[in-house]
Amino acid sequence: MTLTITQLHKHFVGEAAGVDLSQPLDAGTIDEINRAMDTYAVLVFRDQPLTQTQQLDLARSFGPLDMGLKKLKKQPDRLEHAELADISNVGDAGGTVARDSKKIVSNIANQLWHSDSSFQQPAARYSMLAAVQVPSSGGDTEFADLRAAYDGLPEEMKTEIEGLEAEHYALHSRFLLGDTDYTEEQKAALPPVWWPLVRTHPGSGRKILFAGIHARSIKGWTVAEGRMLLMDMLEHATQPEYVYAHKWRPNDLVIWDNRATLHRGRRFDLSQPRELRRATTLDVGTNERAAA
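The structure assignment produced for this chain is given below.
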């Protein structure tokens, strides 16, 4: 198999072809995809009708799996494998769920700019999202290039934020949306961690601006000043210059690097089914550590 890439955005994102992801990948193809991820940060694969098991097998080719927020166990599993995240408004019976259901409230949090599992150590490396059903309009997923965002900062701002650390907490985004119905045990299941605001991507060697909605404070700063800086950095990183919007088709498979990008889902008509499922790998090969 020969991997070919067509770049879709001036800074990042490649449409990949020439690989059947339903079949086991050999070491050479895995290396090719890893190198392409270091360059493009997001790869779009069209026409990849994967079963749930095939999607998990694909993810395992790139590292151990991440359970992320599923550790909180707020919802029963609808999918065949607990390791898959159900990014949908579809219920167990197949129809759409009520718009005030816990599932909808939780998935609306995905409409905030974030990096998967930045709230834990180790955090996520790759996320692999497969489209099963898509609405007639809306429901796109947007990606922001944190490498280009860092490059675009004024030099004085790069100097100011170098060495700063941001606290990332899993439920910060949920609390912002009024989703506060968590037990003390659930709140403690994923304690906050600290990550440098400026990180170096291990594959490309490029610096990134590691912002996102899970970040809620800056070490050594007041809460107010830290949050204003984080808001400014998030606003900078997600301006149109650095953003690609993916319009889903059924059987699309998109892989992104959580160490180099932010992403968010977009609004859609909740009476229409939107069914995607995500497998995520852990970033276990990075020397950089987060402190709890």
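Interim note for the steering committee: Residues 22 and 51 are 8 Å apart (CA to CA). The chain has one domain: 4-282.
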